[in-house]
Amino acid sequence: MADPLWGRLFNRQSEKQESLFEVLKRIPIFQDFNPREFAKIEDILHRRSFASGEVILREGEMGVGMYIVLSGQVQILHAGEGSKPIRLATLGPGDFFGEQALLDESPRTASAVAAEACQAIGFFRPDMLELIERNPRTGLKVVMRLSQMISIRLRQTNRLLKEARERTAAVERQLETRQEAASGAGAPAPPSR
User: Fold this and answer.
1) What's the pTM?
2) How far is CA 191 from the centre of its chain?
């Protein structure tokens, strides 16, 4: 006869693993993974907890990996002209950030700060490189999905930049029209003959 206490304990552990798998299945980078492939990367994922206000990533520092938010909220901030940072985004469960650091070792372009206590999963470049070496097929799948996600974000950024330029050009045209109208109203009347 099985011990009900131990049975419940082991069920909770497998439910926890299934929920992590289900969370990661919703992340575009891992959405095509089956349970066997997930098992290959599960060991290289790192659970992290952050207190409210804690800096997760600092703008300008070298990036080593990405984070996936499991609970809580994270603000993505960019150092502005003044002393107050500009909030670029607020992320919640299922959102991810910092993925570019998996592909290149350039400095972070923004900071990430826990807006409230949160839990996240870290996926770091050294672990990904080891995965590629041990399991090339799974590693290639991760790299391809990362490349696709970065490409999608680049297209979105280009679209936003184009819209911002169009709005700026429209405002500049309005200002020129107003200046021309103002200078025309103050001009002396032509002499009458």
Assistant:
1) 0.72
2) 66
Per residue in 117-145, pLDDT (tens digit) is 999 999 999 999 999 999 999 888 888 88
Positions in the chain short of pLDDT 70: 1-19, 185-193
Q: Of 51, 118, 109, which Cα lies nearest the Cα of 90?
A: 118
Domains and CATH numbers, the chain: 7-159 (2.60.120.10)
Alpha-carbon span 92 to 112, nearest angstrom: 12
| SS3 assignment for the chain | CCCHHHHHHHHHHHHHHHHHHHHHHCCCCCCCCCHHHHHHHHCCCEEEEECCCCEEECCCCECCEEEEEEECCEEEEECCCCCCCEEEEEECCCCEECHHHHCCCCECCCEEEECCCEEEEEEEHHHHHHHHHHCHHHHHHHHHHHHHHHHHHHHHHHHHHHHHHHHHHHHHHHHHHHHHHHHHHCCCCCCCC
